[in-house]
Amino acid sequence: MSGEFHRGDLERLHEAGRYRALTPRAGIDFASNDYLGLASDQRLRDAVAAALARGVAVGSGGSRLLRGNDPEIAALEADAAAMFGSEAALYFATGFAANVALLAALPQPADIIVYDALIHASAHDGMKLSRAPSVAAAHNDAQAVDDAIAAWRGQGGKGTPWIAVESLYSMDGDRAPIAALAEVAARHDAMLIVDEAHATGVWGTGGRGLAATLEGQPNVITLHTCGKALGCEGALVCGPQVFIDFLVNRARPFIFSTAPSPLMAAAVREALRIVADEPARRETLHWLIAHAERVLSPLGVTATGSQLLPLIVGGDAETMARASAVQAKGFDVRGIRPPTVPAGTARLRISLTLNVTQGDIDRLAEALA
Fold first, then answer.
1. Would you list the domain boundaries of the chain?
2. N or C: which end of the chain has fewer CB within 10 A?
3. Is 120 assigned a catalytic role?
4. Is 198 a catalytic residue?
5. What is the per-residue pLDDT across 84-115, written as a single tens digit (0 to 9) for each?
6. Strand, coil or helix: 34
7. Can 224 be counted among the known catalytic residues?
């Protein structure tokens, strides 16, 4: 019978406490990635209104290689390259598509991809499409990356190693050892891909991310998500011109996708200006992080030094029960279960943004207690 497998699979998810459903927004925001509170900011609204007023189209009308190469998108890419210090930038409709494109298109059959074990799911999908083999390295272990490349060389590997990591991990809130990874890349003549999704706008000099000091180097490619701290949508791949040109010519998620809305490009340009113009936003968020760690750590929440604070519960059903209890008290805190996190580490993911106040954090602590 049509759908029989699918019904059975959904039933198994129910039984395991891993069934997911879409729910409306409710409660104080401790769940979103809108770290700087820009998603509803008036400056972004005004930027979109101004773009409409000067005749910018709502839709792009086609892929970038057809008629979708709107001047707004080209202007955004120029602004992004200037801000992040890269030779060039390329705008994708989503961070997922950008990660898939990077890892599916750039590494070649004679190369190898060494990736952090906790890297984004989109990177895994990109590696599945890649013609290069891939191997996982222990999380945040630069020596493990070095050893994996050395072992590959020892087995006759002649191509280019590609190291793929995130700078700040969204489920654990911890940071990659970027400097040590850069040293490994230099030692092995490797390319370093850094996904700055959760760091862009929040960390690094001028909010440029945790790999900001590496931008512009010939062996470094960064990905800056626009749908988190920038409050918009899409992602910017920044790096040497040769790799941007290669993506335009070889990356199927770019070639065969309708270009992003020019209005969204205008909004992202304004978001970049806000990040540059208003450092007080970052300073306020950093202060909230420090306060949250003081009041939440005694309750079992892991102090990570970032805006992402996990409370490891363990069991899937227990995690969702705790999430429901906190939500019933008016706080939007979500339970995260496998396969998003390893089995036995289901957790409440507490995300700090400028959409909350010190008082909100204090009341969340009372609810958790």
1. 25-39+279-368, 56-276
2. N
3. yes
4. yes
5. 999 999 999 999 999 999 999 999 999 999 99
6. coil
7. no
